[in-house]
């Protein structure tokens, strides 16, 4: 979700196989650099594979370009990587959140599993609770929220959606990215 010169990205910590809970500390949101966060939902093995692949690609980019990658360029890299595997795709839905340029403009991007990109201005959702989350986010979203208010809105949206989705929960993590850095907080959610 985008705010005023800030973005937030959140996810639950449940790792499951269909209806069975396997672990309670799954991390699906990764820091790419000080201006870019990357979240993925989907098949856990593909998430881990792509996390390592993008980690390698970003280290190589930093060495070759002698600068950190921008969120928009990283989003195009993700889309290209997914499209290159379109005939045997990775079963993930990625979300990229970041701050672009010198004025720290919020940047949001989501793709499908073959890399078709979408650039919303307000918020984007993915995962098993997507339908519940979409309605809640439409209700609570406001433009130009400050970081503290953005954290509250994202947290309440996630908590409300997790309560309506049997395949989500067991805790959640909320990251708020501002020009001063990343603030990460853990929330308690439904545990059944």
Can you lay out the helices and strands and say which pair or pack?
Layout lengths: L5 E7 L2 E3 L2 E4 L5 E5 L2 E7 L1 H22 L5 H14 L7 E9 L4 E7 L5 E2 L11 H11 L6 H17 L8 E7 L2 E7 L5
Helix pairs in contact: 3-4
Give me the side-by-side strand order of the main sheet. 4-5-6-7-8
Structural class: alpha+beta
Uncertain residue segments: none
Any idea what the radius of gyration is? Answer: 16 Å
Question: What's the quick description here?
Answer:
With 192 residues, the chain is α+β, with helices and mostly antiparallel strands. Helices cover 33% and strands 30% of the residues. It comes from Anaeramoeba flamelloides.
Report on the structure:
With 192 residues, the chain is an alpha+beta fold. The protein has one domain: Glutamine Phosphoribosylpyrophosphate, subunit 1, domain 1. Helices cover 33% and strands 30% of the residues. It contains 4 helices and 10 strands; from the N terminus they run E-E-E-E-E-H-H-E-E-E-H-H-E-E. The protein has helices at 44-65, 71-84, 130-140, 147-163; strands spanning 6-12, 15-17, 20-23, 29-33, 36-42, 92-100, 105-111, 117-118, 172-178, 181-187. The strands form 3 sheets. It has a 5-stranded antiparallel beta sheet with strand order 4-5-6-7-8, covered by helices on one side. A hairpin with a 2-residue loop joins strand 2 (15-17) and strand 3. Helix 3 (130-140) runs antiparallel to helix 4 (147-163). The two termini are 27 Å apart. The model has no long low-confidence stretch (mean pLDDT 90).
């Amino acid at each position: 979700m985008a705010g005023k010169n800030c973005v937030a990205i959140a996810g639950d910590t449940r790792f499951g196989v269909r209806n069975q809970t396997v672990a309670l500390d799954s991390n699906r949101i990764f820091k790419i650099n000080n201006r870019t966060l990357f979240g993925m939902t989907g098949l856990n093995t593909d998430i881990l594979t792509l996390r390592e692949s993008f980690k390698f690609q970003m280290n190589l980019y930093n060495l070759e370009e002698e600068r950190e990658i921008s969120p928009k360029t990283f989003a195009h890299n993700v889309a290209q990587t997914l499209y290159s595997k379109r005939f045997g795709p990775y079963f993930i839905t990625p979300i990229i959140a970041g701050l672009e340029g010198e004025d720290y403009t919020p940047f949001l991007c989501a793709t499908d599993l073959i890399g078709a990109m979408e650039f919303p201005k307000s918020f984007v959702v993915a995962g098993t609770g997507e339908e519940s989350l979409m309605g809640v986010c439409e209700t609570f979203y406001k433009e130009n929220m400050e970081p503290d208010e953005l954290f509250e809105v994202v947290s309440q949206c996630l908590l409300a959606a997790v309560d309506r989705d049997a395949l989500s929960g067991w805790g959640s993590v909320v990251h708020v990215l501002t020009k001063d850095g990343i603030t990460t907080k853990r929330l308690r959610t439904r545990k059944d």
